[in-house]
Write a sequence for this structure.
């Protein structure tokens, strides 16, 4: 078949009266629609504020009236304006409504008349002259492929531009656009290098209770609130100390029935979350017997920067993430402990170390456990030849050898963290042991009230009692307060407030200082100063500068309530738990 | 348009137990002796019966559209139905829920079991698809109110180059993917947000929406159905199904005489000319090209997936929960002053959100966990969206590497919306209608006798 | 061109079969899904008054010119205070209905004396624009008997509610159309 119409007359139908009137109608309707549209736009532009009275001039007027309430003329003006504004508002709403319908009408007429006009003079199909049949598909497909390719590049480029132009979700990650899946939930996870600047467990990053910062405040006073940035009530009691990681402070609290973990905002002191731990049927069947001085939440939590590890008097151990979600929870059995279980967990990499001493030595129930931090499963456990104790295990490293040191009556024993194998032991303790040792300057300082003070070298093998005691002392022996070492001075503190100073290396007793208060809190050290908190009802607390010659009381402060826990140090701040509150000490204008 | 005034039914709240337990009772409600408490009046929404009416309208409309387009070949009938749809589904029912938006409800409902999906929505989503399997895009022809608006404003359509049509025609598929991804993750119903005409149907919308609608409308006078062709995600699905249609639009009622009169009849660029076999020498090249395209397809899918995976952060910034978490987080770290005294600072949506969050009693941890989950979800959604985009582009390239054979002028079913314009251009149709003599048309088809688009 | 060769017929038959299967599959899937998870009643937008913080965005974010959100009054909860913090400005010059003392920007609250010392406050919903100022005042210092609700006489039930999208307290929720209101006094027994 050949293409048929060869000569189509390109003229269109003649212009008729009907066509002219349709075009005219369309023009009028178009003009009308434009005018309505413009009016509505103008009306819209005149609108301001969220409500009729949200007009600055009117607000000023009302303020004037508030200042001179008796001005009758002003009042009248306010009322008049109020009425005008409200009427105007509803008039505009009405106008918009009517305008919308007018516009619809205008556009409808425009469309109908324009269509009528074009139907009266239709453009007729005008195929061009017949061409010899040729393949049009191939060049079209080629062009189209290029177009699709260009489109693809455009899409990819705009996606890439969008990705590159979008800042990271978390403001602190400005350098890194990509954020991991757990962008928000692990907000405070810091690189491991920062661990020394945190306060990740009992007595700080290395168990020596020394701050990495030198800007700790020195003065505070509960009577006028000076130097106290915030104080927040802690729901349940506990004698565990605060643990700080980045901008969060963690505590535990417990009663005979309930056990809870708390996270506080370090900046504001707000209690961010409370996570109750349910325990297991075995661990909650009956509460453990504890002394009031120990309580049900004596162990201080420990953290690896991702998880909080908590322990309670009933032998429950749990890991909670930084948002309060319980990761795992297990019961080690209710400890047979005459005062109540108090040893804090310690973290060594992916291991959680628990010193679980109980009953009498002859019962052979005491043990040291290493749990998998991620799951809570036991990695290894080692029996310990000691009765119940209240001391926290210490993770130390000496000459490239990592050791876990655990003290109990009568042995100080060092273990290999990898498998719990015993490295060395020294027999130097007697009686109930609650002191956590401190390892500074190559010497492990340990002792208690019923035995003697000993400074041990930690490179021994087997029984090192005869070979590795550097020195020993008999004066000012403490029973609950763990020691600190500052400028090579060892400071011991008795429960009744006597501080005794030794030369940490030589073992020479230098001086004694009496504070006339009861003390259970192990002191902390920042910038060479010693921070001492007491059980005094007013919360007397001191900042001390010590030297070989004696002790200088830099400041005597009042916390406002007794304190038996150890302070935790942050940048320019001290977090300390009193009887009922968690305190943040620091200067308001400081960091 | 008037809204059906509903029966006002009244919840009567008697003051009998005025002293009963009230949550916040700073001032005990008085115990009146001779004063009856007023009633709080509430107006019920339109009855569910309307949903059934809508469904019936849809079914009838689809049937009629198919009948007018394929059996009667009547543009007048289609136009009448178009106006009826515009009035009923557009102005009277005010445009929600339409099948286009229902894509998102369905996606959300499939992703989140707690999201309620009424029968009406399911029906509106499914029925046009089923119709498409049998008679093509009947829904687009005369039932969709958005299509109806554009159908009516076509004034002087220009022809979009066919190669460009191929590229622009990909946008609806990507838009579909984006709409589904964002709806399934509960981020935003983006298709509804950029609905062009719903603001007109309701006589009110945010300015941006009205301006967008106005632009589509003005563009629609010169480019036929721009929303349907270059944006509508539902049209994309219908187009794919329409390729399988049992009954399709045939330009000529019986046989094509290759007169080429219909060549420019379609304002939507759906008419494809007959093909001519290429030179034999090009065949191996074409075959190789097809192989390349087939190989490129999985590569494009993978690359798209990779690129899409990176979209988690940009997408997350659209999400309310993530934005709130960000703000709370920034406050927590002291980067922004906390919202403590709302009167002291200018209220913004963000500060209000923070205020509301603080008073809701939810913990930061909960919020962060939710935000993280959302970011992760959006990462997955972004990856799937990217892969989908790669698939769409790759499939298009494959499609463009395959030769098709056509002997007649045909309406490409995936693009044809069955508006019925082309029928009247065909001399055979004129003969069928008795407007032209059988023997005369081949040579003497006077231009004046060929009727164009004459219905308003 | 009609072609009635057996090949074409067979292809058509197979095609029809596949189409029927496809259609049945689509309808079946939709039906099964509807049966398991769908519901007969339509859904409507509503504000949960227990979550609403009366931020004021309802007045400005609705697609309608005059927002579909209005203030409702749970009279059983109202203390009928003389100094109503939902009605009066924070520091009213006098406890009367003078325009300068009223909190409502459209004057939509009507104050009426009942008996000493009680006043009744009713809402003229025609004037209410849902700004929530009175609700905020009542929640802060009063019994919280004023609350915001989506008025279904006005609401056009957008598929994605523009207010819900930006509601800071996520108080907007979908409710069944047969129980379209969440009265604040719904938990008071009666």
């Amino acid at each position: 078949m050949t293409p048929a119409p060869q000569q189509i007359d390109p003229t269109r139908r003649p212009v008729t009266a009907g066509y002219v009137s349709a075009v005219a109608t369309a023009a009028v309707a178009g003009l009308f629609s434009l005018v309505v549209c413009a009016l509505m736009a103008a009306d819209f532009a005149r609108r301001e504020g969220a409500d009729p009275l949200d007009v600055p001039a009117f607000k000023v007027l009302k303020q004037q009236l508030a200042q001179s309430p008796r001005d009758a003329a002003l009042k009248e003006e306010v009322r008049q304006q109020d009425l005008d504004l409200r009427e105007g508002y509803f008039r505009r709403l009405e106008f918009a409504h009517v305008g919308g319908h007018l516009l619809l009408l205008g556009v409808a007429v425009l469309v109908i008349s324009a269509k009528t006009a074009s139907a009266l003079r239709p453009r007729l199909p005008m195929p061009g002259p017949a061409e010899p049949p040729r393949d049009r598909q191939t060049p079209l497909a080629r062009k189209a492929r290029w177009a699709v390719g260009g489109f693809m590049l455009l899409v990819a480029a705009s996606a890439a531009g969008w990705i590159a132009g979008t800042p990271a979700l978390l403001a602190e990650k400005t350098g890194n656009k990509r954020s991991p899946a757990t962008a928000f939930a692990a907000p405070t996870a810091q690189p491991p290098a920062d661990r020394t600047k945190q306060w990740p467990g009992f007595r700080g990053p290395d168990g020596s209770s020394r701050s990495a910062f030198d800007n700790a405040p020195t003065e505070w006073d509960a009577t006028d609130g000076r130097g106290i940035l915030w104080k927040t009530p802690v729901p349940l009691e506990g004698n565990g100390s605060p643990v700080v990681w980045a901008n969060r402070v963690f505590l535990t609290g417990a009663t005979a029935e309930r056990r809870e973990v708390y996270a506080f905002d370090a900046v504001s002191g707000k209690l961010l979350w409370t996570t109750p731990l349910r325990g297991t049927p075995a661990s909650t069947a009956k509460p453990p017997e504890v002394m009031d001085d120990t309580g049900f939440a004596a162990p201080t939590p420990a953290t690896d920067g991702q998880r909080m590890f908590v322990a309670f008097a009933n032998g429950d151990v749990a890991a909670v993430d930084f948002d309060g979600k319980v990761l795992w929870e297990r019961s080690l059995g209710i400890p047979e402990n005459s005062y109540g279980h108090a040893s804090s967990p310690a973290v060594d990499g992916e291991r959680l170390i628990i010193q679980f001493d109980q009953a009498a030595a002859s019962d052979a129930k005491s043990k040291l456990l290493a749990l998998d931090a991620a799951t809570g499963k036991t990695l290894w456990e080692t029996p310990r030849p000691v009765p119940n104790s209240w001391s926290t295990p210490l993770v130390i490293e000496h000459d490239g050898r990592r050791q876990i040191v655990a003290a109990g009556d009568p042995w100080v024993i060092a273990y290999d963290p990898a498998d719990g194998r015993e490295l060395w032991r020294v027999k130097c303790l007697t009686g109930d042991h609650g002191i956590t040792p401190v390892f500074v300057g190559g010497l492990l300082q340990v002792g208690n009230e019923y035995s003697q003070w000993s400074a041990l070298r930690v490179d021994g093998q087997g029984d090192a009692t005869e070979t590795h005691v550097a020195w020993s002392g008999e004066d000012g022996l403490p029973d609950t307060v763990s020691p600190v070492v500052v400028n090579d001075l060892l400071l011991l503190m008795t429960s009744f407030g006597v501080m005794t100073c030794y030369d940490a290396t030589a073992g020479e007793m230098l001086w004694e200082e009496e504070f006339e208060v009861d003390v259970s809190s192990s002191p902390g050290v920042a910038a060479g100063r010693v921070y001492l908190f007491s059980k005094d009802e007013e919360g007397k607390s001191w900042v001390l500068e010590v030297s070989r010659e004696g002790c200088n009381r830099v400041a005597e402060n009042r916390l406002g309530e007794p304190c038996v826990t150890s302070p935790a140090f942050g940048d320019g701040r001290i977090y300390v738990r009193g009887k009922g509150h968690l305190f943040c000490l620091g200067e308001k204008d400081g960091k | 348009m008037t809204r059906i005034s509903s029966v006002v039914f009244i919840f009567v709240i008697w003051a009998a137990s005025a002293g009963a337990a009230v949550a916040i009772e700073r001032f005990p409600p008085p115990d009146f002796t001779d004063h009856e408490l007023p009633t709080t009046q509430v107006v019920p929404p339109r009855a569910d019966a309307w949903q059934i009416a809508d469904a019936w309208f849809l079914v009838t409309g689809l049937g009629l559209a198919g009948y007018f387009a394929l059996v009667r070949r009547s543009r007048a009938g289609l136009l009448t139905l178009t106006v009826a749809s515009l009035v009923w589904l557009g102005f009277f029912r005010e445009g929600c829920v339409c099948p286009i938006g229902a894509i998102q409800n369905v996606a959300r409902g499939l992703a989140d079991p707690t999201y309620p999906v009424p029968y009406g929505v399911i029906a509106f989503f499914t029925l046009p698809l089923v119709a498409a399997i049998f008679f093509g895009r009947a829904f687009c022809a005369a039932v969709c109110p958005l299509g109806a608006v554009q159908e009516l404003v076509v004034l002087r359509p220009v022809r979009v180059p066919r190669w460009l049509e191929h590229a622009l025609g990909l946008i609806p598929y990507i838009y579909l993917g984006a709409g589904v991804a964002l709806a399934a993750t509960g981020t935003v119903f983006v298709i509804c947000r950029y609905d062009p005409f719903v603001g007109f149907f309701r006589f009110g919308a945010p300015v941006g929406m009205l301006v967008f609608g106005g632009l589509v409308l003005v563009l629609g006078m010169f480019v036929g159905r721009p929303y349907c062709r270059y944006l509508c995600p539902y049209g994309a699905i219908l187009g794919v199904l329409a390729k399988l249609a049992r009954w399709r639009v045939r330009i000529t009622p019986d046989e094509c005489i290759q007169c080429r009169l219909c060549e420019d009849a379609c304002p939507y660029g759906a008419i494809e000319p007959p093909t001519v076999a290429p030179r034999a020498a090009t065949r191996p090249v074409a075959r190789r090209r097809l192989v390349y395209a087939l190989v490129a397809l999985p590569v494009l899918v993978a690359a798209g997936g990779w690129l899409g995976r990176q979209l988690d952060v940009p997408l997350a910034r659209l999400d309310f929960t993530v934005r709130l978490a960000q703000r709370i987080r920034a406050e927590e770290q002291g980067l922004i002053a906390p919202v403590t005294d709302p009167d002291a600072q200018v209220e913004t949506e963000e500060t209000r959100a923070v205020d509301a969050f603080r008073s809701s009693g939810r913990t930061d941890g909960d919020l962060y966990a939710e935000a993280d989950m959302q970011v992760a979800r959006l990462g997955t959604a972004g990856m799937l969206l990217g892969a989908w985009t790669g698939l769409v582009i790759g499939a298009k390239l494959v499609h463009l590497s395959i030769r098709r054979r056509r002997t007649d002028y045909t309406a490409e079913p995936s693009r044809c919306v069955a508006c019925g314009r082309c029928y009247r251009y065909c001399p055979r149709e004129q003969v069928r209608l008795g407007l032209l003599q059988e023997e005369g048309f081949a040579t003497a088809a006077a231009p004046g006798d060929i009727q164009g688009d004459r219905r308003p | 061109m009609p072609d009635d060769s057996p090949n074409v017929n067979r292809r058509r038959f197979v095609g029809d079969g596949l189409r029927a299967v496809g259609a049945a599959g689509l309808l079946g899937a939709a039906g099964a899904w509807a049966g398991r998870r769908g519901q007969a009643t339509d859904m409507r937008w509503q504000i949960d008054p227990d979550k609403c913080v009366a931020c004021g965005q309802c007045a400005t974010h609705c697609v309608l010119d005059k927002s579909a959100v209005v203030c409702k009054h749970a009279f059983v909860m109202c203390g009928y205070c003389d100094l109503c913090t939902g009605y009066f400005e924070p520091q009213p010059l006098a406890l009367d209905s003078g325009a300068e003392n009223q909190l409502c920007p459209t004057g939509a609250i009507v104050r009426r004396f009942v008996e000493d010392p009680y006043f009744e406050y009713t809402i003229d919903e025609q004037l209410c624009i849902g700004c929530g100022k009175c609700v905020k005042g009542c929640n802060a210092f009063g019994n919280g008997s004023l609350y915001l609700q989506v008025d279904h006489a006005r609401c056009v039930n957008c598929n994605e509610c523009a207010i819900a999208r930006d509601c800071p307290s996520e108080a907007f929720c979908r409710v069944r159309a047969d129980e379209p209101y969440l009265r604040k006094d719904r938990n008071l027994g009666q």
Summary: The beta strands of chain B are 9-11, 40-42, 117-118, 271-272, 410-411. Confidence is low (pLDDT under 50) at residues 1-23, 441-456 of chain B.
